[in-house]
Amino acid sequence: MRILYVAKAHDYGHASRGPSYDQQNFADALNHLGHQLIPFDYPTLAQQLPPRKLNRQLVELAEAEQPDLLFGVVRGGLLKPSSIKAVSALGVPTVNWFCDDHWQFDTETRRWAPAFDFVVTTARSALPRYARAGWGHVVLSQWAANPRLYPPPTPRSPRSPRSETVGPSADNHDYDHDITFVGQAYGQRPAFIQALRDAGLNVATFGKGWDHGPIDHDHMVRVFQRSRINLNFADASHPGHAPADRLRLHPVTRKLTQNLPGGWRLDRALLSHATRQRARLPIPRQIKGRVFEVPAAGGFLLTQPAEDLADYLTPGKELSLFDTPEQLVAKCRFYLEHSDQRQAIAAAGHRRVLAEHTWAHRFNALFTKLSLPTCTLTSALTTPRNTPVADRGPAPQPT
Questions:
Q1: pTM of the model as a whole
Q2: Which of 15, 122, 155, 174 has the most crowded Cβ, counting Cβ within 10 A?
Q3: CA dist., res. 318 & res. 135, Å (int)
Q4: E strands along the chain, which residues?
Q5: Which mean pLDDT values do the consecutive 10-residue runs of the chain (399 residues) have?
Q6: β-pair partners for 95
Q7: In terms of Cα–Cα distance, which of 318, 369, 308, 7 is closest to 142?
């Protein structure tokens, strides 16, 4: 298919930060499945064009190219829903991938979902909210891994145990770390990490707010492959709090809503994320991309449970779970002492992800549900990283 691809090319929209998650995963998978992408990097174009011209250019590009599909990862206020509707009016099916319906349903999804012919969510818990809003055009999917970005590990040579490892964690393989976490430091994550350190376990942390700081992608993959235990947390980037017995609305919210029928008894589903935070309502744990990326790279994953996680990888067989700091400490000690079980779980997780949970699998499943053409998975799963792909079509230029 010829796909008008509407998503950011650079991380947080800044070229200096390198390619975005969308570019490295969505765009790469679609290209290697054989689809031709017509990119519309709206965050970059927004730095060169006023809003009205930016939105007009999207519609003009759709008119000129007549793509088979518009696939978007659209959020924020740079584009307007009316522009997406205008593309749909041209006879081009439109679909958007929503990344964080667990906590952004009110701030993003409610604004954008009505504009698209189809939408994709990774949150089963959001489906009733779509239904209450009268939107029946939703497809449930999930994150995945790009095997070209997380290649299979090279065989490790047996060697004598590293002197700096802790006791039984030295298991005659060439590891750099006992326990690692790659991601931002927020919410309860520092407390979990500190619990491990208080228990005398070696933990290396990478990312914003941690001792080692951010690392590039290749370094991250090496960490996944050369750590005995890779941790993952399932909390959102704006973590929720313990549930309260009743809503505690901000005084401004009360002032604005005092004339509404029903007084202060607002449906929780209609509260914005900011109000949910003030009301101290919990945000569901969610499956992260790490759940698939660590096993794809051959690493052992120890993660918090999340909605529907067992539908994708089997706990105790293809990954392992922890819930409390005490469980985390106990699980780490167990798997550092039982290297054979740890390595068997890592191998099983690796096989399962490559067999079922790559982006090629996700897109073929999505297009099948939407009655759109699909492609063979073979080349998308085996083509080495950085292999040239088919012509991606003309990039839009500022006018």
A1: 0.80
A2: 122
A3: 35
A4: 2-6, 36-40, 69-72, 94-98, 118-121, 138-140, 177-182, 203-206, 227-232, 301-303, 320-321
A5: 95 81 94 95 95 97 97 95 97 95 91 96 94 94 95 61 39 84 94 97 95 92 96 74 37 47 42 46 82 97 96 97 97 97 97 96 94 67 41 40
A6: 71, 118
A7: 308
